[in-house]
Amino acid sequence: MISMMKAIRKLGDKDSRRLISPIVLSVFDSLLNSCMYGVMLFVLLDLAQGQFQTENLKGYVLVLVTVFLLRCIVQAISFTQAQCLGPDISYRLRITLGNHIRSLNLGYFNKNSIGKLSGTLLTDVNDFETIVTHCLCDFIKVISFTALSMIAAVLINWKFGLAIALLVLIAFPFLRLSGKVSERNYEKLRNANHNVVSRIVEYISGIKTFHLYTLIGSRFRRLDDALQNLRRESIRTEISILPAALSFSSITAMIVPVALILGTWFLTAQHMNAASFLLFVLLAISISSMMTVLSSLYPQVRSISRAADNILSVLGEKPLPYEAEKPDFKNYEISFHDVSFGYTKESSVLHNLSFTARPGTTTALIGPSGSGKTTIISLIARFWDVTEGSITICYEDIRKIMPDTLAHQMAIVFQDVYLLQDTVINNIKIGNPSATKEEIVAAAKAAHCHDFIMEMENGYDTMIGEGGSTLSGGEKQRISIARALLRNAPIVLLDETTSSLDADNEKEIQHAFDHLMKGKTVLVIAHRLKTIINADNILVLDKGHIRESGTHDELMHRNGWYAHMIEEQRKAEQWSVQN
Ligand SMILES: Nc1ncnc2c1ncn2[C@@H]1O[C@H](COP(=O)(O)OP(=O)(O)OP(=O)(O)O)[C@@H](O)[C@H]1O
User: Fold this and answer.
1) What DSSP character marks residue 519?
2) Residue 349 C-alpha to ligand 1 middle, in angstroms?
3) What is the distance in A from the centroid of ligand 1 to the CA of 447?
4) How far is ligand 1, taken at its centre, from the CA of residue 238, in Å?
5) What is the CA(551)–ligand 1 centre distance, in A?
6) Is residue 370 in contact with ligand 1, taking CB distance under 6 Å?
7) pLDDT single digits (tens) 470-490
8) Pocket of ligand 1 contains residue 374 by CB under 6 Å
9) Ligand 1 center–CA 107 separation, angstroms
10) How far is the CA of 541 from the centre of ligand 1 (A)?
11) Whose C-alpha lies nearest to ligand 1, atom 20?
């Protein structure tokens, strides 16, 4: 309970103060509930002492109706307050989580699956909201009403009160055990759920491949296994809690028979009058029914507070550190100083790289697949931090620059273009949310996508399918170039892959790239001979080392790896022309 309250304070932040009122109202509701029993006691006493009068009954009924109405109002207010608070907390938590996840090193996403992260953002936050909106107030009501009933029982007849307290104490370890089992299973069930989400995302994203290899439906074993596992874990969760929960229920179910036996005994021995006897039975019934509610509520609260732990563990991940909010960039020169990097501690992908990309120049990165070209670009964008050495922009270590400020200095066009399920205009606007329609159209024209956009059904207001599924590869790439052009950032990081495009599309994209690169500090993963030859500096990479660097003429003159590669590419181009 204490750890749950701590988690609510931490995660609910300022909003958690809004919980004080529903909690206080829940305790007040329990007091009012106890009052109803108190009124019944007076009625029973009157009856037992033969002083029952119809006039008195009217007074009792009036008090009962007033207390009942008051309870309705208190419950309505407390319920509404808790219900309104839940979505507010969920909303703020999801925004906080989203911002926090964005600030993490990309290595975090290698270690944590989509299923796990979406599970935290959706399921864990939902479960946490359930604690706040439903469980917490109910839990407090049950505990406070049980405590008040126990006190009343002890005050009326301490032996009787003690007997009930003893039964509750004997049953309590089973309640704790059911909570522990439920908490442990929650983790397993959650992992099974995350696995299913990951497999479903994989299934939908790779549906074309799975279709091709006839791996759809039940033949897609990975999804099938994940679903089977979820079914197994769900059944196991339900069953494993049963022994402890049943033991608790069975012991607390004895409260009423024990009250009857003890009451009859006290009555016969004249230690108690008939009114007290009836009241005890009433108290025993209410405590017993509270215990039934507690037996289902407690494991739920315990398991759901695991959700809070999961959210806290994501928020506990350290974001990328930085020092300067807005460094004073005098130019946009990018320098690598003895940079080494590995995605894992065990293996290194880049080894002691040093080079400088000057403002207004183009640096072409070339080399075989896996030589580290994309990794260099990712390090400049600070998707990852270097393992050794440093990367500077205008002599400022990028690790000291606030990630958002750094991102604003860059326009990036990667091979895998991601478009949102939104209108064309909103997809381009991502580059600069405050851009006007005229600026967007100008960027689209410069990126050579205005014409095909105008041919679409609703022009710039046409909806694009998720991930850009309704567009061709070339169209997607040109929209992403328009986005980058709109950003008008001083640094341009480019992956020039155009291999999947036809000649017309390739020409259009090349024009778009030319616009994008004009006057900027450009690093391009170059695939086209023209880009390579025209680059101001060419870095020839091999297995994470810079084998050669210089202009085209310098490297040709050296007659090394680069000259050999150019010769091979020329031969290939001639071969394709002749055929
Ligand atoms: N996210 C990642 N986690 C672990 N290893 C990675 C990751 N991304 C790339 N690598 C590894 O790092 C090495 C360099 O990859 P990188 O993508 O930088 O090469 P590249 O030269 O851009 O290749 P290509 O031309 O095929 O795109 C490769 O061995 C690759 O397997």
Assistant:
1) T
2) 8
3) 28
4) 45
5) 25
6) yes
7) 788 788 888 888 888 888 889
8) yes
9) 13
10) 13
11) 370
pLDDT in tens, 351-407: 999 999 999 999 999 988 899 999 999 999 888 889 999 999 988 899 888 888 888
In this structure, is the dihedral angle defined by the CA atoms of residues 364, 369, 375 and 381, taken in order, positive or negative? positive
Whether the predicted pLDDT of 205 surpasses 60: yes
Residues shown for the chain: 579
Q: How far apart are CA 208 and CA 203, in angstroms?
A: 9
Percentage of the chain with pLDDT > 90?
21
For ligand 1, atom 4, the nearest C-alpha belongs to: 343
Beta strands in 145-232 (DSSP E): none
Please tell me the residue having the least CA distance from ligand 1 atom 16: 372
Residue 378 CB–ligand 1 contact under 6 Å:
no
Q: State how beta strands 545-550 and 362-366 pair.
A: unpaired
Q: What are the angstrom distances between the C-alpha of 123 and each of 130, 194, 239, 263, 305?
A: 10, 9, 22, 48, 12
In the DSSP assignment, the letter for residue 470 is T
Note the pLDDT tens digit of each residue in 246-281. 899 999 889 999 888 888 888 888 777 777 788 788
- Name 99's Cβ contacts closer than 8 Å, sequence gap at least 6: none
The residue whose two tokens read 């994008």 is 516
Percent of the chain with pLDDT over 70: 93
Domains and CATH numbers, the chain: 2-315 (1.20.1560.10), 320-359+368-407+531-573 (3.40.50.300)
Cβ(110) – ligand 1 distance below 6 Å = yes
Please report which residue ranges of 494-550 form alpha helices under DSSP H.
503-517, 529-534
